């Protein structure tokens, strides 16, 4: 059965080209017969790379966007008035979550799905792509919070996996149908 993977990532322009190329290479390795992608809408930043690359492969994309970010020429599957509604739909759509490099919005999404796994509202894989070591300090922060006993368990207990190259991440995404 086909799985839907929600991608959380940057919607910012003017990123280093290496991020665009790397994310496009990741997306090209995803099996469109096994995986559909849900994302936050639009053609901007890494979200646009995810969208355009997957659509160029004839993959299925589901967008959950906010009305204020609606772009001309793009039909969004879901449009909302606020971030909470948008996020709720993105979380609901995903059988698993892929966290690519991003800013505050991406971190907000990451913390939401970790918290849902932590409190037992969900038990879905969270796959963090630590490309260019962008999440190293986050990983160190979590380790420190564990050491100080603010966080009880390690990443595995919350179904969090960290990847440093797109081949391994793509393989994990493509095999989600056997582990969920």
User: What's the rounded overall pLDDT mean?
Assistant: 94
Helix and strand succession?
Answer: EHEHEEHEHEHEHH
Looking at how many chains there are and whether they match, the oligomeric state comes to single chain
Q: What structural category do the secondary elements indicate?
A: alpha/beta
What is the straight-line distance between the termini?
Answer: 10 Å
Any idea of the CATH class?
Answer: Alpha Beta
Could you name the ranges where pLDDT drops below 50 across 5 or more consecutive residues?
A: none
Tally of structural domains: 1
Assign an overall shape: globular
Largest sheet: 7 strands, parallel
Helix content: 40-55%
Annotated CATH topology: Rossmann fold
Produce a short descriptive summary:
The chain is an alpha/beta fold and 180 residues long.
Question: How would you describe this structure to a colleague?
Answer:
With 180 residues, the protein is of the alpha/beta class. The chain has one domain (3-179): Rossmann fold (3-Layer(aba) Sandwich). The protein has helices at 17-28, 45-56, 83-93, 104-119, 136-147, 166-174, 176-179, and strands spanning 3-8, 35-39, 61-66, 78-80, 96-99, 126-129, 160-163. The chain has a 7-stranded parallel β-sheet, with helices on both faces. Helix 4 (104-119) links the parallel strand 5 (96-99) and strand 6 (126-129). Helix 1 runs parallel beside helix 2 (45-56). The model has no long low-confidence stretch (mean pLDDT 94).
Element layout with pairings:
Elements lengths: L2 E6 L8 H12 L6 E5 L5 H12 L4 E6 L11 E3 L2 H11 L2 E4 L4 H16 L6 E4 L6 H12 L12 E4 L2 H9 L1 H4 L1
Parallel strand pairs: 1-2, 1-5, 2-3, 3-4, 5-6, 6-7
